[in-house]
Amino acid sequence: MIVGRITVDPGRMRGLPCIRDTRVTVTAVLGQLAAGQGFDQILDDYPYLEQEDLLAALEYATLLTQEREIPLARPA
Question: Which CATH fold topology does 6-65 show?
Fold first, then answer.
């Protein structure tokens, strides 16, 4: 559940969604996952995060993309 795990503060990280009032953005976590890093690797890099934080980042991204069309590269 993302409630309380994802925060948005205009005074922190330019208002980007962050994990639990840290300076770790949802985008940073998603980028690491997209680059092939596993949960264990990310948690080693950020020992103050928990697995539930990473799941919350994924859930947050899922909610943002529901029912929306995401532009993809156009065929040549």
Answer: Arc Repressor Mutant, subunit A (1.10.10)
Instruction: In whole angstroms, give the CA distance from residue 11 to residue 31.
Output: 22
pTM across the whole model: 0.81
**CB of 53 within 8 A of CB of 20?**
yes
Residue 66: pLDDT band with limits 50, 70, 90: confident
Instruction: Say what the pLDDT of residue 73 is.
Output: 62
Question: Phi/psi class of residue 3: alpha, beta or left (left: φ > 0; alpha: ψ in -120 to 50)?
Answer: beta
Q: Is 67 left (phi over 0), alpha (psi -120 to 50) or beta?
A: left
